[in-house]
Amino acid sequence: MRNAVQRRNHKERAQPAQREKWGVLEKHKDYSLRAKDYNEKKKRLKILREKAIERNPDEFSYGMLSSQTDRHGRRLQDRGNATLSQDAVKLLKTQDAGYLTTMLQQTRSRREKVEQQFHLLKKEGGVQLPGGGNEAKSGQHIIFAVDLDEQKTMDSAPQEPDAMTSNKDELPQSAQSDDAQRGQRQRDLTCMDRRRVAREKAKTLLSLKQERTARKIRKRQREGQESVLKALQNREKGLSATVQQLDYRRARMSNSVGGVNKAGIKWKIRERKK
Fold this sequence. Notes:
Layout: H1 28-53, H2 63-66, E1 68-69, E2 75-76, H3 86-124, H4 148-154, H5 163-166, H6 172-253, E3 259-260, E4 266-267
Antiparallel strand pairs: 1-2, 3-4
Helix pairs in contact: 3-6
């Protein structure tokens, strides 16, 4: 019955608000683990310090002959990896060389293709204009006039004969009416010319805007193709160097070429005298 009675849930005290920057409030069990780890490290350092003080510089053991150390003086141990035979290593290097050669051929072919595209793009400058082609529209020749009088003289619209010159002996009232009609016709022609010039100007501005847009597109395309070409050239160069280095190592393993040993002394295979 004692376990059937509901008990109060005791909650742990939280970290105060002014000490939230220090993280979660440390409990006694956390302190115990931290103190245990600290004391173990302290004992270990004490033992190492005593060994260093009592070390004998003339000490020797035969295990020192077979053990190896790195350049920092740390002893190297066997990790238990199986040592491959010479034939197995040669086979693996042959497979690596075949893979690298395949990747080099693919990179070279792609680089040549990108080079052709880049040269064609640079030579033709060919980028389709938005909403049209590269070719200019035929049958248009825009001539800009300095003022309205020059525009009237350049206008190719047919002019009707003057009523005054054809009928010089007519009455003054008819002459006045002809003058009014001619003035109205001139005003109509002037309005038509203005609209035509405005349309031609709008077409010119549109063509200039399209040409500017095409130049920007061509520039971006050239920059993109150039960056891709440089990346492929660098990749091809790295793969070529890797293949050459791998071929050299395989030749070194088969004792068909010379080299430089660890002491920096050059050596070469002694050839058989003929």
